[in-house]
Amino acid sequence: MSGRREQSSVDRKSGEQANKTPAGHGQRAHGYRSTQKRKRRILDVVRVLVVLIVVVITVVPILWIILSGFKSQGECLHNPPIWIPRNPSWANYQDMWTDGGALSLKNSLIVTVGGTLVAVLGGVLVAYSISRFRTGGQHLANWVLSVKFLPPIAFAIPIATMYRVLHLIDTHFGLILVYGAFNLPFVVWTMKGFMDEVPRQLDESAMIDGCTRIGVMWRIVLPLSAPGLVSATLLTFIFIWSEYLFALVLGQNELFTVPVRLSSYYSQAEGWVCAPQAALATLAILPMIAMAFIGQRFIVRAMTFGAVKQ
Known about the structure:
Layout: H1 2-68, H2 73-76, H3 91-133, H4 140-146, H5 153-166, H6 172-197, H7 200-208, H8 213-224, H9 226-241, H10 245-250, H11 258-263, E1 266-267, E2 271-272, H12 274-294, H13 296-303
């Protein structure tokens, strides 16, 4: 009898423990989910704060430049700063336009478009050759990229000396050649990565159907590499548009681009002429903003290309 009683008490205890166990697990699971929700909310708040800080750091200087273009010279230099101009006027844009601003915009547009075309056309051909024929073996592609490792100032003086002998100083053609050559490695490596993704079987099938090598590149490879082509073109345009060193060294008197003209608004004789400078800077950043908005999807894909293997 005592053995049966002991057995029955053991069974009741095990049953009570069995009944309590699911409830205990449920409470722990509920607490874990609550903790995870709190962590996610904290992370969301941190992300929002980081985004707001980045937006403020990025947008506020641009907004300040745009507003300064409508201020008077005294308002631009006023301390404490005046954010909203009291009497907005287009006078700064008129003064800037007639005082070399229009010519600098024209020069920048010519050399930027020309340099971009040279870099993209040459880069596409070189990238296709390396991607399909392994031209230069394993070292040519690395050598092309190594040009970007050297600082531009290392080339500026030798190129200026050579250009003076060839009478290419103060010429659009001279700047276009330099910009095309120095942006060629970026186009080559961007396009090579996208062209390597295109299967070679498509080239062979097109050639069997009678297509030439140029036709294969034009009709097959380039359309499939369109994101890389668009991003390389837009980024090259932005790089050349904002370049300063070569424009300063190789364009001395007649040929001055927007960055060079912007730097000339400060002198010891006149001080800082900031209002017309802000007007020219506003017009200068518009093409880059437009390019960024037009091709942001392609630019992001090009910059993150190869980060994830599928």
